[in-house]
Amino acid sequence: MNTILVLGAGRSSSSLIHYLLDEAARRNWKVIVGDTAIAAAQQRIQNHTHGVAIAFDINNQADAASIIANADVVISLLPATLHPLVAAICLASNKHLLTASYVSDEMLAYHEEAKQKGLLFLNECGLDPGIDHMSAIQVIDKIRNSGGKLISFESFTGGLIAPETDRENPWRYKFTWNPRNVVMAGQSTAKYLQHGQFKYIPYQQLFQRTTPVQVSGYGDYEGYANRDSLKYINTYQLNGIETMLRGTLRNKGYCAAWNILVQLGCCDDSYAMENVSEMTHADFMASFTDGVSENVASWLAHRFSVTSNGPELERLNWSGLFSTEPVGLDHGTPAQILEHILNKKWKLNPDDKDLIVMWHRFVYKVGDQVKEIQASLVAKGDDAVFTAMAKTVGLPLGIAATLLLEGKIKSRGVVIPVDKEIYDPVLERLKAFDIVLEEKEM
């Protein structure tokens, strides 16, 4: 009996575990779900005959090693900083490992040993990174096979909310992913290539320098550059390309409002604030201004040259940032306090539905003729548990684990899903869940 161990039972695990339990019932496999809160793991398993819920703490090395030793494949949904700890145990126990996170330098250091031991350490196999890689490479390969040469590639992905959800929400956004990751987004310099020139955007400018994106049938969005796009030039085998940009997608107007919070310093995580237990939301905002809590909105309007009833301050006001409600924390950094305040309005309600929007633009030459393909993928969640984010992050991992146990993935070492043996079958099986990239020649 094959055993799959899932580490982490958080908000992104629902669809993955549901998929794996269905596969386990068909194939007589076992799925073990481990979390520091065993109740969370039990909630995901729901007494399924092929599922087991356990308490798991990666910091308890002896117990963690014993649990991992009894699995055939390990899927880690733990925070990305903990993946190297899991990887070290998987190496010692000769177990395959799959994650949805970016390949870190620590993870990459395990490549040779994993390859020598015949182990697959598959990373970046979620949504972004994940489906973005797989769907892009599939189109790029078709362009190459038609004799085309890619000269520009842009890709943006975002987790948003569906049109029918929370209609009064001016951000058109809620937390569908780890809230901390949202608050901390973009705090390293973004790097990309544009028209043959290397470009760099420091955090302070990131939400001011956006790219307009129009997705047919869904409307206008804006994208901001995401981390390091340059490293994917080699990964995608696009040497000589003139433009390479990967980014995050948001609804139009989001970035201008979020930029105010960035410029104020509300997303800083480097120090603890004072007197937090007595602080209101307005006090928190006033801490970063020359004004007092009673006129923070007016001060911001003057400081950022926006109107007092304009869309930027409307978004901040809707989020409760000018209210006299107590923060409700005893201590915290600015980023932690901002996350806590926003979570009061940005948390998904039980019947809320989220929306994933992915958009690629490929510009290429065939001889002297310039051609363009735009491709988009849109997925909607069922509710606050089986979200589109959980589907698009979890299902690629579950499908890849299934393919691995079927003996259909031969790659070994630390890899991402840019090889045809991985991306073709994963994308094909995702179609059964209405996760499909629609292509259009412009």
From TrEMBL:
<protein>
    <submittedName>
        <fullName>Saccharopine dehydrogenase</fullName>
    </submittedName>
</protein>
<feature type="domain" description="Saccharopine dehydrogenase-like C-terminal">
    <location>
        <begin position="126"/>
        <end position="432"/>
    </location>
</feature>
<dbReference type="InterPro" id="IPR005097">
    <property type="entry name" value="Sacchrp_dh_NADP-bd"/>
</dbReference>
<keyword id="KW-0560">Oxidoreductase</keyword>
<dbReference type="Pfam" id="PF03435">
    <property type="entry name" value="Sacchrp_dh_NADP"/>
</dbReference>
<dbReference type="Pfam" id="PF16653">
    <property type="entry name" value="Sacchrp_dh_C"/>
</dbReference>
<feature type="domain" description="Saccharopine dehydrogenase NADP binding">
    <location>
        <begin position="4"/>
        <end position="120"/>
    </location>
</feature>
<dbReference type="InterPro" id="IPR032095">
    <property type="entry name" value="Sacchrp_dh-like_C"/>
</dbReference>
<dbReference type="InterPro" id="IPR051168">
    <property type="entry name" value="AASS"/>
</dbReference>
<dbReference type="GO" id="GO:0004753">
    <property type="term" value="F:saccharopine dehydrogenase activity"/>
</dbReference>
<dbReference type="GO" id="GO:0005737">
    <property type="term" value="C:cytoplasm"/>
</dbReference>
<dbReference type="GO" id="GO:0019878">
    <property type="term" value="P:lysine biosynthetic process via aminoadipic acid"/>
</dbReference>
<dbReference type="InterPro" id="IPR036291">
    <property type="entry name" value="NAD(P)-bd_dom_sf"/>
</dbReference>
